[in-house]
Amino acid sequence: MKHIKKLTILTLLLLAMTTSMSNVAIVTALPHLKDHFTNIQNIEFYARLMLTLPSFVIALLAPILGHIIFKYGKKRAVIIALIVFSISGSAGLYLQTLEMLLFSRAIFGISVATLMIVSTSLIGDYFKEQDRHTFMGYQSAFMALGGVVFVIGGGFLSDINWRYSFAIYLIGFILLPFVMTQIKEVIVTSENNDEIEVDSNMYFIYFLAFFYMLIFFILPTQIPFLLIEKFGASGSFAGSIIAIAFVSNAFGAITFAKIKNKFSYSTIYLIGLFIIAIGFAGVGLVNNTYLFYITSPILGFGGGLMMTNITAWMLSKTSIKKRVKTSGYFTSAIFFGQFSSPIIFHPLVSYLGVQSFFFTIGISLLLIVGFSLAYIKINSIN
Fold this sequence. Notes:
Blueprint: H1 6-20, H2 33-36, H3 43-72, H4 74-89, H5 98-126, H6 129-160, H7 171-182, H8 202-216, H9 218-230, H10 235-259, H11 265-285, H12 292-316, H13 323-352, H14 354-381
Helix pairs in contact: 1-5, 1-6, 1-7, 3-5, 3-13, 4-5, 4-7, 5-13, 6-10, 6-12, 8-12, 8-13, 9-10, 10-12, 11-12, 11-14, 13-14
């Protein structure tokens, strides 16, 4: 990374950080919506939709956006996306109707998808092999710690007025000068500009990315209910548990660069899945709230390791011409997993109860890891 300016590296880190604040910055403002929109039925549902709608839009449109960005250029795309990010993200400061707020969140999702695709593909453009793995560890750590800052900052602002937490998204305007001066488009030297088919092997990675987020997103969507409803914990205690998971997520991400030289991508994926399985099983067995301070870091660490690994795996299989498009499909897979997680697991949670559900998922993941290792062993012998 020595040949890249420190300010450019900082710009790339800040750019990635904007994607980590796509939902968390306003999460504490949403309960206040029912006090403001008193005349609207099912306001709790619409408040939750404020969080999930951007994820749905990202999952739906990211592949299309990947093709558009490839055609018009990354730098132009990221400048437009930052402007839209700030305007649509901060719309809660001034929009008066719930319909317009939801519409602004959908537009916001498009900008976040663009920022994710560009920031992911730029890593592949700027860094090679070991430098890439090291940077991605720092990037994931930066995003995780940024998530903690935005949760706390958004909570502080929403206590003053629920609208004020939306002001955090104005950070996009602050980043614009950095992007304009520090981001340089890597020119594709190939003379042909034909449509590029996605390597069929990439679909397996997209599935693994989807599966990772499907499993990992159980943590923020189910842990608060378990803590508050079964253990009678406070909202701030639940927030601290998730914040610790964010911090340990950063450590998991940094660890990836240290172990990549020893293990393959597939092996690291299974190691991360094993760690998450232990964390889930642990949550299913705890009988004291303070034990969550042990299980939460385990889950966060495994998630950070897996996310950094799967992103690096994807980038390692793409050329400069394919990178934007594959990043689009990859982003879609990640957010489709995020959007689908509470929907797919809701029947199981309702049937088993939250804590038994965690234990069941933990044991199921351990079985998957075991079968996968057995399959790899058998194939290596053959």
